[in-house]
Amino acid sequence: MSRHGAAAGGLLLLLGGAGCATRADVVQQDRQLRQMILEDRRQLQQVERELERLRRALEEGPRRGAAGSSDKVAELERRVTELEGRLGGPEAPAAGAQAAAPEPGTPEAAPEQQPTREAKETAPPTRPAPPSPPSAAPAPPPEEADEWQREVAREQAAVGAMGNVAERQEFAGILDGLARKDCTRAVPQLNSFAANHKDSPLADDALYWAARCYQLRGDAKQAISKFYDVVTRYPKGDKTPAALWAQGNLFVQIGDTPDARLALSELVRKYPASEEAAKARQKLSELER
Where are the domains of the chain? Predict the structure, then answer.
């Protein structure tokens, strides 16, 4: 049984033995279990990125030190397998985007047939087709584009007023890229800023905007994970209510209503006076219908 299954089983035994568990107890325990799963998924993504980096280094880099790198690759592969096993149990609730299944009636793609050795030897050489130009990303709806620009402008104004923060100019430069929606360059800059300035009042802002970039790209799973980092690392940060609001809406978009309710309820409970809490109350009432 996976770690999550053991935790869930222990929860059922505890509640059954007590005989007086309230709904709030069950919701709280369910929240904790889902947070464990999100944390495991975040660790899995980090390990997979490190594994891919080491594999590229082994393929492209010098041979010196290859043995030690190979050992590290093997260790990372073992960790990936372990994390996938912990996340793969049937008892684990879904907390991220589900893989898209083929629509009914849509024929599956036939496996590509490999040419025989004789066909390879006799076939005339073919000229490679010229690369097709990259397609432009679809433009967001005007109201969404306007909201992005307004939010970036508010952030720029707030950062401009923080005259006593040493790293203010560095973050302001990143915001200039965000104003152009240059998330390809901004995301690594934001992650690096958050790692190098963990105690800065702008650290939660950096994580929040990295999550917003993932959201803009349509990567709901990465965005949810990054918003979760904002909430857990900086519970007193000024971006935490906005992160919970965005997280709850992403859960709604991917069809995960239970986690949407949990995120929005936490927003209302912990940050009742925030602007986002008022919107969360309305959203919760809509989800109850």
Answer: 3-87, 142-287
| 256 phi/psi in degrees, rounded to 5 | -100, 75
Topology of the domain comprising 142-287? 1.25.40
Candidate ranges 24-38, 61-75, 96-110; pick with highest mean pLDDT:
24-38
Q: Which of 41, 44, 45, 33 is nearest to 3 (CA)?
A: 33
Tokens of 279: 């919107």
pTM of model > 0.90: no
- Which tokens belong to 149? 């620009």
Spatial CB neighbours of 266, under 8 Å, sequence gap ≥ 6:
31, 231, 244
Taking alpha carbons only, the member of 151, 95, 176 closest to residue 276 is 151
CA–CA separation, 221 and 241 (whole Å): 19
What does the alpha-carbon distance between residue 205 and residue 197 come to, in Å, rounded to a whole number? 11
Cβ-contact 37, 8 below 8 angstroms: no
Instruction: Give ∠ CA 24-29-34 in degrees, rounded to 5.
Output: 125
CA distance 277 to 109: 47
End-to-end CA separation in angstroms for the chain? 36
**Most confidently predicted of 17-21, 52-56, 263-267:** 263-267
Contacting residues for 106 by C-beta, under 8 A, at least 6 apart: none
